[in-house]
Structures are given as C-alpha cells and as structure tokens.
Amino acid sequence: xxxxxxxxxxxxxxxxxxxxxxxxxxxxxxxxxxxxxxxxxxxxxxxxxxxxxxxxxxxxxxxxxxxxxxxxxxxxxxxxxxxxxxxxxxxxxxxxxxxxxxxxxxxxxxxxxxxxxxxxxxxxxxxxxxxxxxxxxxxxxxxxxxxxxxxxxxxxxxxxxxxxxxxxxxxxxxxxxxxxxxxxxxxxxxxxxxxxxxxxxxxxxxxxxxxxxxxxxxxxxxxxxxxxxxxxxxxxxxxxxxxxxxx
Length: 247
Fold this sequence. Notes:
It contains nine helices and eight strands. The strands form two sheets. Strands 1, 2, 3, 5, 6 and 7 form a six-stranded parallel β-sheet that branches. Strand 1, helix 1 and strand 2 form a beta-alpha-beta unit. The radius of gyration is 16 Å and the shape is globular. The C terminus is likely disordered.
C-alpha cells in the first residue's frame, strides 16, 4: 500500500524544514506544492527537498485564486512560480489552459482550519485505508509539524510506502502525469489500482545551467511541474464535491 503526503503554501522559514527533518529521519518523501514568492525567499529549503528526493510542484506565484485570472495573467503567474522554484533548486526541476498537470487531493485533513495537531492525526488515523490516497496538508503551521511527528512513523509502521504524487500516479494508478490534464475528484473516484504500474522517466543529472521551465520531478522537459491550485481563502481549496472517505 502507498500514500502520498502533500504540503501546500510553503516553503516556510521554519516549519517546512522541520517537516523535512521528520521525513529524513523516517527515510520518507512527500510532494511540496510551493508558492513562488516563498521559494524565492527561502531557496535553501527547496534545495534540501530535492536532495531528499521529494517532489516540488507549483502552488502559484502569489497564492491568488487562479480561477479568477485571465489566461495571460494566469500563465504569467505560473511562469513566475516555475522560475522561482527552478532558481531555488538549481536543477531540472486553471485546469486545462496552463500546459501543466493540475493535481487535487482525496483526503483533506483541514489542518489549516483546526490548527490542532491531534485533530490532524485523528483525521488520518481514523480512515479505514489510505492506500492510493493523496493527503492534503500545509507546511505553514507548527501544529502540522507536530502531527507529522506521529503520522509519518505511524504510516510506515502500518505498512504504507510514502511516495510522491508522480510516483503514486505511475505505480498505483498506472499513469504518467500529462500536461494540460486535471486530476481531481472525478479521476480519483473512478480509477482504482492498476495491474500494470509504469516506470517514471529517469531523473536528469543536476546541472548549473538549466532552463527555468524544466521540471525537478524528472518528467520530460516538455512537461511543466505539477500544479496544485490555490485560492484566496483556504476554505476554497475544498473540492466542489467532497470525496467520500476513504475514496
């Protein structure tokens, strides 16, 4: 069984690094959907993510509601985020109009709402199964850090492999993330575990001269980093149709 933990809104100057400490101590990885302006402020945090084998995606440049932007403004925002993330990692690193893979989630811990570590823990541990799930968290709260101190080792003890979103898509769902595709509520509720897992493309060698548009995830250079769509109000991150739990 495998599960992908995702963290939005970072990097945070303190808390993201503490989450990386927990992942490193447990030999685990996660996917971080980062805000471009924060990536520019704290590039060393993204460098460490890449070194640990974590996946880095875009959560826009300034955490605007992308659905309310005109296409040229939307693309400019995402391009700025890509450039900030690529500049921070120094290596290859709404919906259908962006040329990017857009990812949502299947389990929402609402850590931003409760800001209560035990509630976050309970929201995850109470589920009958987390196999194939994408868990939504945020790396900007101390309470989320505290919750991860329990959740990450617990998942491993329960037999789960902690994988990135791209790994989950390839190994569990049998699909490589495609540019211009939206993977959301309908996708995850209509797809089950594949009998034919796919291999991810080999990651490129680290280079000091890398085009800003190339993705850290090791996807072909024609593919943009995956995007998690933000909103002005964190509550708007909720899917239009709340998924059944577990999905």
